[in-house]
Amino acid sequence: MTHDLHGRTERLELSDQDLRDFEAVVLDSTPDGIVLSKSAFYPGGGGQPADHGVLLWQGVETRIVGVRKGDDLHLIPAEDDPVPPVGTVVQGAVADARRSALMRTHSGLHVLCGVVFRDYGSLVTGGNMDELSARMDFNLPELPPGFKEAVEDACNAEIVADRRIDVRVLPRKEAFDIPDIIRTATNLVPAHVADVRIVDIVGLDTQADGGTHVASTKQIGRIKVAKIESKGRGFRRLRIAISD
């Protein structure tokens, strides 16, 4: 798979989701943001927050507390931390515990999405996640008896099944020829995107997605449906927690 680009930055995390350490050259640098030639920091999107971590250079450490997207990908340094000059070679390190938790959570949301779509035909209307906790909103006018327990049991059965999670990039037309590739009530893939990144939980859920994921459902851990809230007009919010 080819690496993606965001402005001048080669995005390493899209093709190697287990990569945490990398080397890059500083292309632009201010206290408001650092642009690198390469980066493994996920910049956030699709409900998944941006990575945190550090840049190491010339015996100095710069903490990275977020990422800002624009014409370039700007790594946001912690306030008052020194920033490396343009041309500096830096060692980047993504905070592993945070990224790994977010990968498990994001994959868990896809399992939830796949189960609710398969068993109830409901589309996603929104979602958000933090480390090992998340919410997903569904267009679900009727709440069947025992829904919460049934969904939780079905999700954990898919985790135990250890389904492989594949990531690939397809030309837009080929991607949109896949049945039900968009699991949201509105298509969130911008019209200018020529190549679409597909996340496939083999045998359960295939959808367009730009986030980072674990390699198989077993790595998620366990899903608990913590709460179901009514959001009016037939919309339900499911809050989940991920545990070992």
What does it look like?
The chain has 244 residues and is of the alpha+beta class. Helices cover 18% and strands 40% of the residues. The protein contains three helices and 16 strands. The strands form four sheets. A six-stranded antiparallel sheet has the order 4-3-9-6-7-8, with no helix packed on it. Strands 10-11-16-15 form a four-stranded antiparallel sheet, with helices on one face. The longest helix has 25 residues, at 96-120. The two termini are 31 Å apart. 34% of the residues are buried.
- Look at the helices and sheets and give the structural class: alpha+beta
The H-and-E topology, N to C, reads as EEEEEEEEEHEEHEHEEEE
Radius of gyration: 19 Å
Q: Main sheet, how many strands, which sense, barrel?
A: 6 strands, antiparallel
Strand order of the largest sheet: 4-3-9-6-7-8
Number of strands: 16
Which word captures the global form?
elongated
Low-confidence stretches: none
- Strand percent estimate: 35-45%
Query: What separation lies between the terminal Cα atoms?
Result: 31 Å
Percentage of residues assigned to helices = 10-25%
Write down the overall mean pLDDT.
Answer: 94
Note the total helix count. 3
